[in-house]
Amino acid sequence: xxxxxxxxxxxxRLGLVAGLLxxxxxxxxxxxxxxxxxxxxxxxxxxLAAGQGLVFNLGERVYGCATPLWVGLIADGMALGxxxxxxxxxxxxxxxxxxxxxxxxxxxxxxxxxxxxALATVAWSANAWMLRWSTAGLETPLAVALVLAGFAAITxxxxxxxxxxxxxxxxxxxxxxxxxxxxxxVLWLMLLIVDAQNRAGVRRLAFGLMPPALIYGxxxxxxxxxxxxxxxQVLSVTVPLADRPAARLAHLARQAGIVGASDGxxxxxxGLALLFDGPRSWPxxxxxxxWLPWVWVAxxxxxxxSRGFPVVSRHxxxxxxxxxWLAWRASERWWLGPExxxxxxxxxVMLGAALAILMIAQSLTLYATAAVPQAIAExxxxxxxxxxxxxxxxxHAPPASSIASPEVGAIGFFSGxxxxxxxxxxxxxxxxxxxxxxxxxxVAGLRFExxxxxxxxxxxxxxxxxxxxxxxxxxxxxxxxxxxxxxFYRIDWSIFDRLSSPR
Length: 503
What we know:
The radius of gyration is 25 Å and the shape is elongated. The longest helix has 55 residues, at 342-396. The chain folds into two domains: 10-378, no CATH class; 397-500. With 503 residues, it is mainly α. The protein has 18 helices and five strands. It has a five-stranded mixed beta sheet with strand order 2-1-3-5-4. It starts with 9 loop residues before the first helix and ends with a helix. This is Glycosyltransferase RgtA/B/C/D-like domain-containing protein. The chain crosses the membrane at residues 12-30, 87-107, 136-154, 169-193, 205-227, 256-276, 288-305, 348-370. It comes from Eiseniibacteriota bacterium. Keywords: Membrane, Transmembrane, Transmembrane helix.
């Protein structure tokens, strides 16, 4: 079912206003949240705004920033005189609020009852994980808004997929915000190929290909010329999985736990709807694009698990609103039945109100017990460690010195010094070293010396000054301080050369 476009009803307007006010109120306690990834993006944006290129370290063209559209928007704000962090936070907050309106539009095109559309929108506006990342200045809210807008476009018209140009353009832009969106785009194009059984299907495929080919294809061409590669460096850094089948299952279980913590009620509702009304909930055979949301919510976690990617809640936000949409859509079909009358409609609204209350209650519980405390604790820890020491390096490090660190955002942004990325994200030469020895061994043995000789090194370990105890080259390491899980050292490479030279 695709509901024709019509003016917003009173209940839909109330739902939209309530959703926007609820999200804005819940974002307020998170307004000061910090993330090292934000400073990573701000470093790129600062150099881009100053006309120094899309680079983290000046003079090093490394495809380390996988969110070029987001960085470009921040750079525009900085070029106009805005503070980078403030610009990023405002843009993220606007995108978060926009996702509420887009979610309502998606509900209006796929749900029959206006009251259920409004209830679903309010429930989405309280999602704890969306709120958790709504004001950090990261690209996630914009990626969510673009993915939702693409699904709203694909459901527009009498049949799914009637707006391939709009869908392709939105998801092409999403690819420039989060690299996972490329996977969504590929899945959609594969289904378009399957549907290309007649002239109309071929036309949809051709029109669907054009916008992403122009938008994302242009970026790929630029990245090949500018960086020398089509792929972000983060995709070249593999995460070793000791027991691969067991580790992948554990990875999937962790992702299920993250989604279940915020959307367990939606999962139960979806499961019940499929159990009691499965045949009517599944997509129709004549249009395989209807399978896309179902495939997407399963395929992205599977992709993360296959890569061993260290997933946190924000990485799953591209599937969470789609999962909620499927839960509401399947539940409405179940509640209304094949012949919905006034009584069934009234019952559906009552059941929808109960579902919305349970979903909001679960989200607010997670918000109060985990999302807000976690955000505050992590922000304070970052401010007292990497931000503080980034500023220290900016004041005390010699002009020509560099710093090796496993997290490079705040260190690079606040110090103004070149950074050697021990995790390999912006230092490609670290990738083979990490594959052979792992991060801990590479740092303990100062193996990164083959990549560069920084004057300072940041160690991430639970025990302060652990590197000064376990490194075979402890004589050349001078502890400077410790904060949180990080310890900071100066390296004397002349002593290292003496210790490592053959006797």
